Amino acid sequence: MFDFPTGPTVGQVSGNYTWNGYAWMPQSSAAPIDALAYSGMQINGSMEVSQERGAVGTSLSSGVALYIVDGFVGIFAGTGAAGVQQQTSAPAGFSNSIILNCTTINSLAGANDFQWIEHRIEGYRWSRLGFGTANAQPVTISFWIYPHIAGTMAVALQSLASPYRTYVVDVPVTALSWQYKTITMPGDTTGTWRKDNTHAASIFFVFGVGSGRKTTANVWATQGTAVGTAATTNFFSAIGGPLITGVTVLPGVYAPIAAQSPLIMRPYGQELSVCQRYYYKRIYSAGNWFAALQAYSTGACSGWICTFPVTMRGAPTVTASGTFCLASSAGSQITLTTGSYATTPDFCYVSGAGAASGFVAGNAVLFGVSTAASHAFDARL
After folding, report:
1. Which domains does the chain have, with CATH numbers?
2. What confidence tier does 30 reach under pLDDT thresholds 50, 70, 90?
3. Whole-prediction pTM value?
4. What b/e readout covers 34-68, taking b as 16+ CB neighbours within 10 angstroms?
């Protein structure tokens, strides 16, 4: 007979057992590493892949979400100021983390003010849990956190289809040390959870909410705005910010112990491929010619630019940065002045690319850049 403490908090240890918010789990019986390593529904949990921003810090505008690294969004709302950045500070076994950094205190005076890091998950990745059915399985979320102050953060799971089901867990943390947290949430047998290539679920790491965004912990609720509780500390009451890394999202009640957590992260190359389903960036050095188009008049051409390394979640939008150019029939460089991009989930095509003149209809035309440039293909949730 085991005599466990009543009213345990997440991470509390009793003998060789740890409370994960759902059950007392034996510390010695975590599932084998090889059974966990490729089961994670998270994307870029080690925070290593940062295609869009690299390690450049970026300021946030109130209410506007930005991807910090691939898969993880930072956002705040209120009168304060904040920024986001990939960091190299990390617990043993990890190389990177991310920070949601308070640069001006946010008092959370508005009922709907908040600050959090959000992880968005596609329906195809989430559907294995069977949420919204009688056979819904629990989900276990683990992560490393380095808070700049002590308090209680919240971790919330929310569906992205009406009626917007939400489950929130309080997570006490101490200041200025890396600590490993594991929580388990029961499966939701009701609600609508998408099972396709759209946004199915979000996991929120919550560091403060206004009065209108608070709900009851440890119960499934039907609402779409509350992701904190009465216990949630305002971490933006002090300058600085929490760092987070080592996020895993696993079906069932098992999670790696702290020492195992770095070992179940997917290798960088494999994680990059997963991330490129949602965002892919091609970077060109000045003078690089990377595609051959075909002229259909003396001033315009069209053709294929690239095939994506993996099939993307949907046809991406294209953002071109830098100066692009074409090679004339005489071999001279012509700056691109017109043209539009078309995409499928598998490739990108340019049509109407050209200038005033310089081509021979039917001939090939090289497409390249005269300055450092890039194409960003965005199919993120």
Report:
1. 13-275 (2.60.120.260), 279-378 (no CATH)
2. very low
3. 0.91
4. eebbebbbbbbbbbbbbbbbeeeeeebeeeeeebb
